[in-house]
Amino acid sequence: MTRLNPVVAEVTARIVERSRETRADYLRRMDAARDNGVARAKLSCANWAHAFAGQTIGDKLTAMGGKAPNLGIVTAYNDMLSAHQPFERFPAVIREAARELGATAQVAGGTPAMCDGVTQGRPGMELSLFSRDVIAMSTGVALSHDAFDSVIALGVCDKIVPGLFMGSLAFGHLPVIFAPAGPMPSGIPNAEKARVRALYAQNQVDRKTLLESEIGSYHSPGTCTFYGTANSNQMMMELGGLHLPSTAFVHPETGLRDALTAAAAKRAVELARSGEGRMADVISEKSIVNMIVALLATGGSTNHAIHLVAMARAAGVLIDWTDMDQLSAVTPLLARVYPNGSADVNAFQAAGGVAFVARELASAGNVHTDVHTVMGRGIHHYFQEPSLVDGELVWRDGVKESLDTDILRPASDPFDREGGLRLVQGDLGRAVIKVSAVKPENRIVEAPAAVFETQEDALQAFKDGKLDRDVVVVLRFQGPKANGMPELHSLSPALGVLQDKGFRVAFVTDGRMSGASGKTPAAIHVSPEALAGGMLGRIRDGDLIRLDADAGVLSTVGVDLSTRPAATRSPEHAGGSAWGYGRELFGAFRHVVSTAEEGASVCFTGPPVATAWRDSPPDPNVVDRAVDA
Predict the structure, then answer these.
(1) Model-level pTM?
(2) How far apart, in Å, are the Cα atoms of 214 and each of 116, 134, 516, 600?
(3) pLDDT, position 620
(4) What separation in angstroms does the CA of 488 have from each of 120, 461, 476, 524?
(5) Rg (CA), the chain
(6) pLDDT in tens, 219-235
(7) Could you tell me whether strands 376-377 and 384-389 are parallel, antiparallel, or unpaired per DSSP bridges?
(8) CA pair distance 483, 369, nearest whole angstrom
């Protein structure tokens, strides 16, 4: 048996100790719910009749027997999101599969599912992060009928899987299986898409040319094919043990996809009958660490520096950015998928995909192998891949050698000896930076600040040529309390153009960047945020800022911020973030939301989560990036 990496073991032990009280409380509540018995035995005849009033005669007769499991489907279907459009047909597939095993299935409820690709750079983006908690609450409402013996969760994209995950954990006494829809077929090459975006940012091509390029990229049902937050979600659900193995990146419009959806339903029925595989046991301190490592090993989305904290908290597990940073330092980077490379997730899957990554991480001792999953105990279940043979679903071992080492490499010969995420900190606070897509020569920037309150102002300064210099673009008042912490991906092409001109460029913000953001070094999620007293509120134009991703530094140079008053938001900006496009409905969220490092959530009561760096300074002997450098 491969020995677990000592840093992975130490970080896990620290998480277990830090989470002792909250995890015990969570499991106590889940045990109590389980011990109350199956849902159908607790409902009165009137309750049960209401639950099945709209069902078919056959399902009513099955339900009247009182012994058949009833699956609750929570769906994020809408046909505006390409990734979620296939979910329109999934409930029918699930119902029929359940009936084959003498069980029933119902759509328990739906959740909202907004698209960051549509709202990017628009006021609606200020609702994006908060939508995660609304989805969690919606999942709770759907399952509150207490009429279900297991759950099938249908979701793929950015905030949707984290929200479904959090909401389902409130019913963690039940088995929960996530059934994804899969990616769309590949469109135009990612490098070409990025080239056209850069040209448009410089007014060198017209909007028609840009639109034709974008339509060539996003062209059919399925998830966008770059490795952003949506596809990072799928990687984490696999290594977290909530998918059937290697289901993440199977195309939606295939017989294999429908067969996998049916198999997920049948597995949910089996788990309901056996009493095994409840979500509270699948999601533990060890599986959370596995999810973090899977994200890091593949250069996944920085959005999960926020989401994972909230997701873990829903299971009573307390993690922070120090944990992620120390795990990143010992996690080999195994994949190069756009924006960390030129390939898309379809090429990643063809090269070996999730099964190869799972096997390599387990063999190298980077993940816990003795975890519970919906397939049973052990991560080895996720070394397999499905296929259809004469119409039957068959599981086989995945490839043991990468079929394209430009996309996927073994742990013995990784693209980098560490993962794609680092913690940076200093007098400006704590932030994260995704370095897997940033070339080593661009990871250290020391330059004067250009301070903005909105991305529109920053983009205008770029268009006016005012940023054609070495510069650290500071965009503040973008945190969860200020305006819901929108993604700021609209700035990426402009920042990339400046960097390509040869300038030393960095970006610092208390907001978020898209999971698709890449080559420009960006210290994001700065915490505390400016509106909550963070030092970004004291930065002025021209202040010298140093961002050193290699040393983990984010600080001013020759500036004493403690002597300055904090800036206040311009009245027009403060007012604009409070109303319009539904933003006025979320005033209470902005008032009570936790910090970015605490998950930027409104779902948890009680005192703020104590982070490891406050409990005790990190042991410098645990992680030393200078070793083997």
Answers:
(1) 0.92
(2) 15, 30, 14, 31
(3) 35
(4) 7, 16, 11, 10
(5) 24
(6) 788 888 888 899 999 99
(7) unpaired
(8) 41
